[in-house]
Amino acid sequence: MERKQFGLGDVVQMKKPHPCGTNAWKVIRMGMDVRIKCTGCDHSVMIGRLEFERKLKKILIRAEEEPQA
């Protein structure tokens, strides 16, 4: 199975909505764990990368790639 490609600053949709009613999360930290922040109430959650990839439904907005000078 192909791994899902996501990056820092992407807005993603998870399989289950947050209790505040929003289903859009922004990726704010990446590593072995991924920290995501709810776009509705600004609550942040840190989960393991494999669990995050399993619960990720799709990428809604890709972060703009900044050119390296």
Could you characterize the architecture of this molecule?
InterPro entries: DUF951. This protein has one helix and five strands. The chain has 69 residues and is mainly β. The chain has one domain. Strands 4-3-2-1-5 form a five-stranded antiparallel β-sheet. A hairpin with a 5-residue loop joins strand 3 and strand 4. The model has no long low-confidence stretch (mean pLDDT 88).
pLDDT < 50 runs, ≥5 residues: none
Q: From the helix content, strand content and strand pairing, which structural class follows?
A: mainly beta
What is the rounded distance between the termini? 35 Å
Inertia-based shape = globular
The H-and-E topology, N to C, reads as: EEEEHE
Mean of residue pLDDT?
Answer: 88
Give the helix/strand layout.
Blueprint: E1 11-14, E2 24-29, E3 33-38, E4 44-48, H1 49-55, E5 56-61
Antiparallel strand pairs: 1-2, 1-5, 2-3, 3-4
Organism: Brevibacillus formosus
Protein name: DUF951 domain-containing protein
InterPro entries: DUF951
Task: Briefly characterize the structure.
The protein is mainly beta.
Keywords:
69 residues; mainly beta; 5 strands; globular; DUF951
